[in-house]
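Hi support team,

I submitted a single chain yesterday and got back a structure, but I'm not sure I'm reading the token output correctly. Could someone confirm the output below corresponds to the sequence I sent? I've pasted both exactly as they appear in my results page.

Thanks,
R.
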Amino acid sequence: MYKKMMILILSVLFLTVMPMTVLAGSGSNNEDCGAVNDGECQQFNLQNQTQTQTQADTGLEKDEASLERIMQTTRECMQTMQKDCLQAGESQQVLEENLEQLKQQYQQQTKLEVKEEIKSMFKTAIQLKKSQGNIEETELLVRDLISLDPKDQEAYRELGWILCNRGERDPKLFLNGVEVKADVPPVIKEGRTLVPVRALTEALGAEVQWNEQEQTVLVSKGDIQIQLRVNNRVAMINGKEVILDVPAEINTSRVFVPLRFMMQTMNTSVEWYPEGQIISMNE
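Hi R., thanks for writing in. Yes, this is the structure output for that exact sequence:
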């Protein structure tokens, strides 16, 4: 009797456990790995990784092939425009569309040689537009080139040539390839450039505070604090005194601060291009 009861209990347990095992076997791929030996699991994961990598490589090859087609079409358009003026109109439209695409591709590129080739195409297009006497479109392309490479000195000189020929004499500020627009232009005093402090700090992402009573301006960015007093050559950098070549001043109801001092203190390089009175700043 006792044996019969034990057999009955074991039978019930067997029937209960079996469906649960079957259900567990029908789960996700990760659960399958738990049900097989380590060798099979590793093989399965390796296959997944290989498939994912293959898909990524295929996508990359397609992107590179697409970029090469755009670059080849751009070359052909510029060659056509240089040789055959009658077909220049159609080629020009294609060229403009391609250059816009290349501008977007440039930012995504990691290969230096590809970025250099894109820049070279912009420079060729600039000279082409310049030879056609189309100064307005030449300037747009030059500004595009500056936005691609904010340290390209040739591009700033080209822009300076355009500005000089147009009769513009006010200094122009560029930060990381983008022109800094201010409601009043910078001024040059004693051979030094002074800029409106608010326009400068907004471009740099810094904070500025003005104390009317003490006639002081406090500029803060990260762990750097700069305090300047109007018409005073002594400035404070994080509490330490520094002597300025030219002090801050009030001009047209705006506070102007010495540009090079501010940029050097904030670890930003400054280049001056006499052609067109251009000041290039790069963080």
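A quick pointer for reading it: The chain has three domains: 2-35, 55-149, 173-282. Let us know if anything else looks off.

Best,
Support desk
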